[in-house]
Design brief:
By secondary structure, the chain is of the alpha+beta class. It has helices at about 20-30, 70-74, and strands at about 5-15, 35-50, 55-65. It starts with a strand and ends with a helix.
């Protein structure tokens, strides 16, 4: 039996850290996408205040998930 996956690119942001931004993207994706297999960070960025301290972290993530077999899932 073969399996098919699909990869989509999503972006998100968080105040706390890069990890928080990734978790935000993955949690939102998991609300509507089943069978997420993996992710890959494509880009990291953010914003800083006047002192140079980071205030916002942004990430672009490729998320790979399984495609359901229509014969099994109707």
């Amino acid at each position: 039996m073969s399996s098919i996956t699909k990869t989509i690119r999503l972006s998100g942001k968080a105040d706390g850290s890069i990890e928080d931004a990734v978790r935000t993207v993955l949690a939102r994706a998991a609300a509507t996408i089943q069978d997420i297999h993996s992710f890959r960070i494509v880009e990291v960025g953010g914003e800083v205040d006047s002192s140079g301290a980071p205030t916002l972290f942004t990430v672009t993530v490729d998320i790979t998930f399984g495609i359901m077999d229509p014969a099994v899932h109707g």
